[in-house]
Structure formats: C-alpha cells, structure tokens
Amino acid sequence: MTILVTGGAGFIGGNFVLDWCGVTDEPVVNLDKLTYAGNLETLAPLREHPGHTFVHGDIGDRNRVEQLLTRYTPRAVLNFAAESHVDRSIHGPGDFIQTNIVGTYNLLETVRSYWHGLSSANRKEFRFLQISTDEVYGSLSPSDPAFTETNRYEPNSPYSASKAASDHLVRAWHHTYGIPVLTTNCSNNYGPYHFPEKLIPLMIVNALAGKTLPVYGDGMQVRDWLYVKDHCRAIRRVLEAGEPGETYNIGGWSEKTNLEIVHTLCALLDALRPKPDGCSYKRQIIFVADRPGHDRRYAINARKMEHALGWKPMETFETGIRKTVQWYLSNPEWVQNVQSGAYRAWVTKQYGDAG
Ligand code: NAD
Ligand code: TYD
Questions:
Q1: Does 202 sit in the ligand 2 pocket, CB within 6 Å?
Q2: Residue 346 — pLDDT band, cuts 50, 70, 90?
Q3: What does the alpha-carbon distance between residue 11 and residue 15 come to, in Å, rounded to a whole number?
Q4: Which atom number of ligand 1 is nearest to the Cα of residue 198?
Q5: Residues noted as catalytic
Q6: pLDDT in tens, 207-238
Q7: Segments forming the whole domain that contains residue 30
Q8: Whole-angstrom Cα distance, residue 6 to residue 77?
C-alpha cells in the first residue's frame, strides 16, 4: 500500500510526511510544485528514507499525475497543495484560482479516471482527503458559537473563496461520481517549518533580527491555534476511520487575539534569548494598516473529531508555542535558506519600509 501526498514540501504537508515516515512503513509519494512556499530543506531528514519518494510537479498536470497514479497505485490521495497566504491572495488572486480551484479540479478528474480502473474492492477502500481550512466559514462575532461542520460556507478573502470552491468540487465529485472523499477544516496551525510570512514565524524571525513586529489594525482579531503535529495526527485518524462524504472540523480549543500571540512570543524570547541591551522584544511591536476585509474571529468546535474519531489535541497552546520558539532558535539555517530573494521582495511589497 502507498499514499500520494500533494504539497508535501510545504508547512503542514512537510510535517505530515515527516510524521508519516516516523510512524508507519507505508510508502509515501510526495508531489510538490516547489513554489516559494515549498522547501526541500524541510524534507532533508528523509533523504535516505526508502519509503519517501519526492516528485516535482503540479497537481494540475494531468499527464504527470496520471503517470504517478499508474506507477504507484496509491490507496489514498491527500491534497495539501494550495496557495495558502491570505495577504498574497489579496495582492494577486490569480495563482489561488489556478492551483486551489483549477488545480484541484484537474486532480479530481485524474483521480476519477484512476479510481474507475480499480477493482471494486479497491474502489471502496480508496480515499481522497481534502485538507481545508476554517476560513471557508467566514467571520464570527465575539458572542457567536464556534464553527461546526454544518455552518454555511461564507468565505471573505480570495484565499478562503478559492478553498471553498475546491471543497465544493470535492463534495460534488463524491455525490456525483461516488469517489470516497473526506474533507477536514482546520484552524490556524503553528510549529516547525512554518514559512516566515505567516504571523507566528514572521514575528519570531523579525524579533530576532531586530526588526519591527507589524500588528495589523488593532490586533484584536481572534484565531484558534493548533500545533501542526496535532493536525497531522488528526489527518491520519480521519484517513483511517473517517466516513466517506463527511467533513471534520479540527481545532485546538485555543482562541487568542493576535496581540496575545505577539506578547506571548516576546515573553518567550525575552526568557530564552534575552536581548543584549536588556530591553523586551515588545518594544519592537508596531501597529500597521489593517488587512482589507480582515476576518475578525475564527473558532472551531472540534467535538465531532472527539466523539466520532476519538481525536483531541495533545499540545496546549503553552506547550506548543514554547516548542515552536525553541525550534526557530535551534534552526536558523532553515530560516536563512527559505529567505530567498523572492521572500525579500514579498516583505518589501507587503510591509514597505516597516519590513
Ligand atoms: P504552504 O503554503 O506552506 O504549502 C503549500 C505547498 O503546496 C507548497 O509546498 C507548495 O510548493 C505546494 N504547491 C502549491 N501549488 C502547487 C501545485 N499547483 N501543485 C503541487 N504543489 C503545489 O501551505 P500549508 O500552510 O502547509 O497548508 C497546506 C494545506 O492546509 C493548504 O491546503 C491550506 O489551505 C490548508 N490549511 C492550512 C492552515 C494553516 O494554518 N497553514 C490551516 C488549515 C488548512
Ligand atoms: P496569518 O498567519 O496570515 O494567517 P490567517 O490570515 O490565515 O489567519 O495571520 C494570522 C493573523 O495575524 C491574521 O489575523 C492577520 C494577522 N497578522 C498580523 O497582524 N501581522 C502580520 O504581519 C501577519 C502576517 C498577520
């Protein structure tokens, strides 16, 4: 048996593949386009691993994916590949439409034809797992209950709209063609190998470099945070025992304002890597213009994962964020490697002089 993972050189896909190879002998084929967000450095620990095969390619390339499916006959396809950064989707939605919608459509079509050719027993056992986000549900007010699987999709950013569209395609390919699909909607992840354009790694990297810590608007937007390895464990559980056609909300029961996050990071860095001048990293915080259409609050009700599949997060925010800061302190080479010219161009575009 083999699984095919797409986007496995990115943050969550990379963590997933590393974990997978640590807990099972089942081979994994890893298809990734290596956009700015894909980093082979993340997969360096697997260089000699016989169960891991990396393939450079696009989920939208039907010939390439068809060849892979024919050659490796996976029992499951896990679709992590996506353009994933909201701010980039605001500056240029085109890539999001192309990969998240058109790419997923092409992947589904290639998988459909492969799936048809399987024996009836293998067709029944096959799974297509779509890794999605809580952002498809839109924004909550402070008193609203957390998102459940029955919440309406009300995406507000080009990123979340493109993910919503791809989730709808996945759903339709199940209802119309019978492909056994599973969809997970997860909250904000954090942990090792997180590209430093997202809130938590950006703040750590900027703090250590003596740069400003740019908080959008009033910093009172709320996100639910989940340690990435808990997400990987949840995905393995859904793959193992999820009901085809069902969706599963995954979250950390850990709502925080952005300002709380930045203060926590500064306090951890003050303790673990005090500044030579004795000042707190908090002094580097600045408030910058808000993100257009900025969703105010996301919150996940993960009871279904707990009741139906027996999954709960193992890390608290306090344990997970400490591990994360320690990882960034111990892995400056990884950070340096991903800070290419393209990364610097993005920082200048988004933050101007404040970057
Ligand atoms: P990421 O941007 O770090 O990684 C995406 C990966 O996909 C990269 O390695 C990139 O090279 C690859 N990729 C992009 N376009 C591709 C294409 N056309 N073909 C093949 N590979 C391609 O993203 P991430 O944070 O790891 O997110 C992974 C998935 O999880 C995404 O689908 C995202 O929507 C979802 N998700 C992310 C979060 C989060 O907090 N990061 C939360 C919930 C859900
Ligand atoms: P981000 O990590 O981009 O994830 P998402 O937008 O998918 O939730 O951002 C998390 C929150 O942090 C979001 O409310 C925007 C905010 N933010 C800042 O305040 N400053 C920053 O420099 C970044 C990147 C994000």
A1: yes
A2: confident
A3: 6
A4: 41
A5: 134-135, 159
A6: 999 999 999 999 999 999 999 999 999 999 99
A7: 3-189+226-252+298-314+340-351
A8: 8
